[in-house]
Amino acid sequence: MPDLDQFTPPPSGLVDEDTGETVEPQPVPEWDEASRVAVVDAAEAAMTAFARPDLDYDTWWAGVEPLLTPEAAEDYAYVDPANIPVREVTGEGFIVNDASAYVATVEVPTDAGRYQLVLNRKNADAPWLVSRITPVEEVN
Fold first, then answer.
1. Do residues 42 and 67 make contact, with C-beta atoms less than 8 angstroms apart?
2. Long-range CB contacts (< 8 A, 24+ apart) of 22-28?
3. 3-class secondary structure, 23
4. Residues whose CB falls within 8 Å of the CB of residue 102, separated by 6 or more in sequence, listed in order
5. SS3 of 83, please?
6. Packing angle, helices 33-50 and 57-64, rounded to 10
7. What is the C-alpha separation between 134 and 130, in angstroms, rounded?
8. Which residues contact 53 (CB under 8 A, 6 or more apart)?
9. Does position 20 have pLDDT exceeding 80, yes or no?
10. Cα–Cα dist 87/85, whole Å
11. Do β-strands 94-97 and 129-135 pair in parallel, antiparallel, or remain unpaired?
12. Nearest to 97 by CA among 26, 36, 16
């Protein structure tokens, strides 16, 4: 009979099949009033940070990068803030798509028209981060 004390005990928690790492369960988000306020606040903060074309790149990026998902940070790392037509947020943001408690689309009015931001979060305790910032095309 082998000595079982010589073996490493199994991990507590869930094991990710791809990485083999132990993962703790995360709280599942819900669409409640706090979530709605938080996603709109995050969108407005991101748009305000984005809409600063007069700043030098390093200052602009220091304000924008923490509000983005890692993938969006890679996409927006090469933006020249001088090319951004927006200078200010002119009104309150509003949710236009909330089909998932993990992802939301928020429109924010600016001096250059409305912008649509896609935000997501990993779990109920994670912050909302922006994955996309695009101008809304006006239909005439």
1. yes
2. 26/122, 26/123, 26/124, 26/125, 26/126, 27/123, 27/124, 27/125, 28/101, 28/123, 28/124
3. strand
4. 29, 120, 121, 122
5. helix
6. 170
7. 11
8. 81, 82, 83, 84, 85, 86, 87
9. no
10. 7
11. unpaired
12. 36
* 48 phi and psi angles, rounded to 5 deg: -65, -45
* pLDDT tens-digit map of 82-130: 999 999 999 999 999 999 999 999 999 999 999 999 999 999 999 999 9
> How many residues make up the chain in this entry?
140
Set out the domains of the chain in order of their start, with CATH numbers. 28-135 (3.10.450.540)
- Do 65 and 127 contact (CB within 8 A), yes or no? no
Show Cβ contacts of residue 16 under 8 Å, excluding neighbours closer than 6 positions: 22, 23
How does pLDDT run across 31-56, given as a tens digit for each residue?
Answer: 999 999 999 999 999 999 999 999 99
Q: How far apart are CA 45 and CA 102, in angstroms?
A: 19
Please identify which residue in the block is written with the tokens 């200078």: 87
62: left (phi over 0), alpha (psi -120 to 50) or beta: alpha
